[in-house]
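User: I'm preparing a small set of examples for a lab meeting where we compare how different chains pack in three dimensions. I only have the primary sequence for this one, and I'd like the structure in token form so I can line it up with the others. Please keep the answer compact; I'll paste it straight into my notes.
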Amino acid sequence: MSETITFTVPDGAFSAYVARPDHKNGPAVVVIQEIFGVNAVMRGVCDALAAQGYLAVCPDLFWRLEPGVDITDQTQAEWDKALDLMGRFDVDQGVNDLQAVIAAVRDMPECDGKVGTVGYCLGGKLAFLVATRTDADASVSYYGVGLEPLLPEIESMTHPLLVHIAGEDGFTPPDSRQRVIKGLEHQPMVTVHVYPGRDHAFARPGGKHYDADDATLAEHRSLAFFKAYIG
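Assistant: Understood. Below is the structure token output for the 231-residue chain.
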């Protein structure tokens, strides 16, 4: 069962897609959008999580720029719009919105109090920051962009983080990618998986770089991680 609900923060309100599992009460996962908004891919992630027994919620984080963004990666015009939105997006404000969503979801009657997050691309960066700045119980980051400058924040991390890194991510220079891997791999609360030969968004169905085998492997690892830390 799915629907759209509204969250309210001090400076306004924004929508979120919600997919509910069959049972009445259990853990929740906040799905953090890519630069294409709460689109069919993100709704599909929510639906898949609900099928695994999680209450899944994907908030519209671009709401201050343009509410209801729902585009794809299939045309240059959509890419141009997505990159423009990403360039104007306030990451810190986005993390604050996610903390508000996490708190609200934790209080939903369908949630047993445990809340994880999973983010892709821009959402992968936000998932990293959620792990260091919020009280989310566990977070998963898929091919997050711009992680290297954030590495010092690991010291404040109090909940576990799983990081999926594309071995040939076109949005991250190789030397920066290696510094991120080296900076994370010995952190006790961080698990890192590198996917050799994979480019950015290898887990995005329909995308140019989609790889079914590694997407499935990453999904299984993510589900096992959530099972271990939020149930």
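A couple of notes for your slides: The CA atoms of residues 21 and 50 lie 5 Å apart. The domain at 2-229 is CATH 3.40.50.1820 (Rossmann fold).

User: Perfect, thanks.
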